[in-house]
Amino acid sequence: MRLADSHCHLNYKGLVEEQQQVLARARESGVGAMLNISTREREWDDVIAVAEREHDVWASVGIHPHEADQHPHVDTAKLVERTQHPRVVGIGESGLDYYYDHSDRERQQASFRAHLAACRETQLPIIVHTRDAEEDTAEILREEMGKGAFPGVIHCFTASGAFADIALELGFYISISGIVTFKNARDLQETAVRLPLDRLLIETDAPFLAPVPHRGKPGEPAFVADTCRFLAKLRGEDPEALAEATRRNFHALFAKTLA
User: Fold this and answer.
1) Global pTM value
2) How far apart, in Å, are the Cα atoms of 151 and each of 2, 63, 130, 171?
3) How confident is the model over 117-140, as pLDDT tens digits?
């Protein structure tokens, strides 16, 4: 299989200690593209450095909603400036998380809008994190899209089927993580079956959310192959074909990876 892991955190504890071995295992599993995601400003330099060093790794710059309170100074201009680096291909992850509420909700919304404005200006994709915040996420995406279109992906999708329809209507891709392999993920599985193949991505969110049969271990990009095989069986598709389609979708969305 030829795969892309559209969302991982190679600089996080659990992966960074043996990053080269992690990358080697990913490549052995057929992973030919990985997007290394940032969640705090202090991570940006390290995440970009990995992308500079590794030919099949790219970087994002962004502020996770958990970190919004700590980053009021990260505005659209700062994001746009850092996207000028040739290995930065996306903006995020950003969005809304009302499950934990680690940051003030209004601050999360302001940060999210700043990221979306940067996407509109650069035409780089937004990488959206949303949890227990479907209504506000949809409203903000629609409002900001009304000011000018931009590409994007709902990462680690766990929302409702109705929200999936809204995201697809807005032209977004939807990324499925190892959560889809969990026994209690029936609603997600039902949504995953009907997602259009040309809007589908696969991710690990490593070192989190290791899929079956790796539950209890740190996730790593190699495991995207397990999620691909499970998803292919769920959808009644050939795993090789699904891998190829999602890899192609990755490069279509993150078009700067082809530059």
Assistant:
1) 0.97
2) 24, 18, 16, 7
3) 999 999 999 999 999 999 999 999
